[in-house]
Amino acid sequence: MIRFLLLILPAFASAMEISPPKIVEPPPVIPLRDFFRNPEGASYQVSPGGDYISWMAPWQSRLNVFVQPVDGSGQPRRLTDATERDIAGYFWAAKDQIVYLQDDGGDENFHLYAVNADGASRRDLTPFPGVRVGVVDDLRDDEDHLLISMNKRDARVFDVFRLNTRDGTMKLVAENPGSVSSWITDHDGQVRAAVQTDGVNTELLTRATPDEPFKKVLSTNFRESADPLFFTYDNKDLYASSNIGRDKAAIVRLDPATGREEEVIFDHAEVDVGTLVGSDKRKVITAAAFTRDKQEYHFFDDRRRDLQVKLEEKLPGQEVMLSSTNREEDKFIVRTHGDRSRGAFYYYDNQRDELRKLAEVSPWLDAEKLAPMEPVRIPARDGLKLPAYLTLPPGMEAKNLPVVLLVHGGPWARDAWGFDSEAQFLANRGYAVLQVNFRGSTGYGREFWEKSFKQWGKAMQDDLTDSVKWLVDRGIADPRRIAIYGGSYGGYAALAGMAFTPEVYAAGISFVGPSNLFTLLASVPPYWEPYRQMQYEMIGNPETEKDLLTAASPLFSADKITSPLLIAQGANDPRVKQAESDQIVAALQARGIDVPYIVRDNEGHGFGNEENRLYFFRAIERFLAKHLGGRAEQSDEKIPELEGTDVKAKG
Fold it and tell me: Residue 526: CB partners within 8 Å, gap ≥ 6?
């Protein structure tokens, strides 16, 4: 009966009497900036020698790298001077040198830079336009070199180079034959394994020494895989996360000469296990990590287990993890977090048993005024159980609330428990927020993942519709005030929800979301080319399944969109081109619908620059307040895209 009510709500909404939610004790409207400004400090690391602590912090509104002696003496030294875009990431290449990555306006063609801890000798190590660089091995015991991957020779594939971080010289170590998607080194820094794919079939290649040619030792269809993690500490075998012959991926030990599975190290009955942690100093594996509702550990090593227990006793009531250590593994960066707090970073000296707080990530946010994230299970129409997270607005009765269905990207990714800026911001504005791990979300086994194949706009979208129904059935949601919002695939889902089930949603927000699956598949970055056939099997083949892709593309059902829609896009997005948003905006405008459309010329697949994030979420705040009736902060900021955005055409 509820399903039928959802279908007829637009016609009868004015006749229905739905009591508003009771306000018990409304929390203050927290400034929008506090949710989306750059952190006070992030990515803290201990240098390999244990002499320095480094971190990223804002300078001129951009995240830059700072360093300070480990004892906290002296003033922090800023090592980078990024003003156009945040530093994308960094790590210590040597005891006295860091390297960092930076792209241009979100184009994801990352360059690798180096700078000494004293601020000297800064240089671009890969000054090649249109080239993307990755790190294969930091060569822990080599103070002067790294192994990097780079698509300089051919934009479609990545070769491996030995790079001198002092003078920028490099030497080819392994040339990609055209189909290798990843490279694996042993603990001596030798390239000993590789994974290659034709998009559907995957092969593990190995060699005993760098002088030998690679040989194929394991072949699988992409639905099954043994993803190499790292070599055993004697360099004889490979640890891998494998779902071969099983539904849930397990940590296994493989014989690299034959590809045979020798031993199951750890598995879990409910979820995939894909992370293995080891001690490079003691040369033992210490833990496996996996995520049910929250991240959990299975310890193999008493010393590591005891350290975890000790830290949790010192930091009660918080989720605790180690994020960095020195080579001697006696000095650590400890990271805490929760669902209502971004947490903090601490420095811990294990020999002295001394714990020192370094920084709160967002000290301006008061956890007591934020909302808990509750894991829930939602039944889909075919009986599949969907793991989800529900965040309810504090101080309000969980009844007849406006709702934002917040859809994750990927789609082959997942939501997890923890602090979510968007969910907390929306809850503070009075919305219930539901985040659903719809079929295809990763971590729940092969069967759950495969249920999403060629189901864009179909069963995957039905899972979201069924989740809305679940909220309505329980009286949590006001069925007249439900919005769908997401980025990337989540942006697609927002468009699909507005086009395919327009009776369900009062508003939608698509952020870098594809609208036309034909143009999406035709415009992927060149280095995704090896995965084209796999995408065809998972999404649909534009040559042989035109009807499937047409039906699943919101662009071709744009005439069904009748509720307000906000669209945002980065002009330099290499994954979802601006044309994806341009097309749907043009189709709506042709029908007389004035759709607010935010484009940023200095952004890519997401808004990285602080001022763009703040502008976008100010637009979201006002858009949702207008169409769903939530709260909004008083602000004089002008959002021209939102002016005159009433829907001018219906049906």
Answer: 151, 155, 156
What homologous superfamily does CATH list for 378-642?
Alpha/Beta hydrolase fold, catalytic domain (3.40.50.1820)
Cβ(436)–Cβ(396) below 8 Å: no
- Catalytic position from the list 187, 337, 605, 627: 605
Question: Which one is catalytic: 137, 159, 267, 573?
Answer: 573
pLDDT value of residue 6: 26
Q: d(Cα 545, Cα 275) in Å, to the nearest integer?
A: 37
- Name the catalytic one among 341, 362, 488, 557: 488
Give pLDDT, residue 22: 61
408 catalytically annotated: no
Residues of the chain with pLDDT under 70: 1-24, 644-651
- Tell me which amino acid residue 603 is: E
Other CB atoms within 10 Å distance of the CB of residue 68: 17
Annotated catalytic, 605?
Answer: yes
Q: Are 183 and 194 in contact (CB under 8 A)?
A: yes
Q: Where are the beta strands (DSSP E) in 326-430?
A: 331-337, 344-349, 354-360, 373-379, 385-391, 401-407
Q: What is the Cα–Cα distance from 299 to 288, expressed in whole angstroms?
A: 7
Which amino acid type is present at position 209?
Answer: T
Q: In terms of Cα–Cα distance, which of 447, 431, 410, 444 is closest to 576?
A: 410
Phi/psi of residue 476, nearest 5 degrees: -70, -40
